[in-house]
Amino acid sequence: MRQRPGFISPTAIVAAVVVFLGVGAVMHLTSPVIFSPGGLNAQTMSGLASIPAPEATQLGGVSSHAALEDDCGACHPAPWGNRTSAAACLACHTGVGGEIKAKGGLHGRLEGMQTSPTCTGCHPEHNGPEGALTVLDVAGFAPQHDVTGFSLKTHSETASSGKFSCADCHPDGYGGAYDQALCAGCHARIDAAFMKDHEAAFGIGCLGCHDGTGNTSVDHDTFAFKLTGKHAALPCEDCHQDTRSLKEYQSAPTDCYGCHAEDDEHDGAYGRDCGSCHSATRWDDVTFDHEVFPLDHGSEEKRPTCETCHPDGTDTYACYGCHEHTQSNVVDEHEGRPLAELQDCVRCHEGGGDGEGGD
Amino acid sequence: MSTEAETDAAKGAAQSAASVAAQGDRTAVADRGRAPVTRPAGRGSELWYALAAIVAASGLYAVAYSQAGRLPASSGWVGHGIGIAGFVLMLMTATLYPLRKLRTGGIWGPTASWLRFHMVTGLVGPYLVLLHTAMRFNGLAGLTMLLTVLVVASGLVGRFLYTRVPRSPRAGARRSTFAAWYFIHLPLTWALFAAAIMHIVAALYYATLAP
Lengths: 359, 211
Description:
Chain A has eleven helices and no strands. Chain A is mainly alpha-helical. The radius of gyration of chain A is 40 Å and the shape is elongated.
């Protein structure tokens, strides 16, 4: 008979069995908490000012996760079942579930939340009674914050060159609407005088204009100058150059020539009211119809202005305003005709050339 | 010289010759009329291999730590990987050398070499498991780590005994020393693996396979 291998001995087998039974007994007599890698968070809602009646608030019948210490199944569904871990969280955290369903708030708009929601990526547990319930690296999370409508692009460093933490703007947790008074609190420390003027001019609804990207979105339709056509897509600085105060913003030019003097291809010949012919969509989208007579009449060096041919308004015209077309010259050219018959030049000279036309 | 001593001497000589040939034993000491005493060859070089592997593992772990900003969680990707690697090494520790001792024949290599391999994996595996704990020792996981430490400690004691107790014809004293030591080392190892298997099953249920 082959010798029993030395590494199988009765004592060894007994030791293994003792451990199996011991652990099983502890688990049976207490709870599966023997498998827990750490205590559960004991924070209650009473730490959050944004929750009404925090002491009384319970979710899923408990005031904190720690109350569930012996009920592992409350959060850990069996792998062979069809209940997911996220579903276990949302069973009690119905507010978050509502956000996801409505595709609103923060959770409803985070990537992946609609198809395969997960909670533990940002919300770990088993870190002890004082463990953080939300663990986020602000820099890593910044792109996701865009879904709230506010970008963290300009808030990567605090005024004292420190790093932002979530609590700097969300001291009372993340439920409910963001308290815009917090913006003024920090920014007044940076530049008190400016903030005083700014708040007086624009009020305290910071998020109405500021989306965190560094640009400001304002409803310009409430102002006298409407941003029509291509004006709407421009960055603010194109028209409001080097402006900081409300007064400076309001003193931006509102006439076309205030910004478009260099764009005038007519060199001022047609006046300064560009809008009377041009739309804000495209320069060549000209509504002015002068088909009756070519506008490029005359020499290139000296184009006629509107007034040259229309000295008395656009209802009438006269060709005699130019040197070439003095009355005596015209009469000479048109032998035998009296001047009175030579008033409607365009009737014969449609293209502005030396047309021979009859009458 | 008696016949028994002759046979012993012949055996010892053959063994030590084989050891010398295989491992470059420097510490063979001739004993007057007795077989040369041998020690585990290589002057503990296996410990250097183990240290090198531990340093390498620590370096990789440091990279993971600096990327995560905190100790990699036991249930994360890094944590799982280290835990599995450490357990595989410990499994090898507990099976390969003992199985080698059941075999005869040179094709499996010198048993002493397998013992050295046993010592390397028996140090590196538990070290990886220690990294896997992320310094948390709650409940069954903590018990498993404790048993690991005890087994490694008993193994180091055994190695110490192995070098101190001369392999001489006074076999009785040596055998009882080792038997006493083995009486600790073996059941501890079985207890450790019982705890480890339960820990792995629980970890699979609550962490790895969590839906």
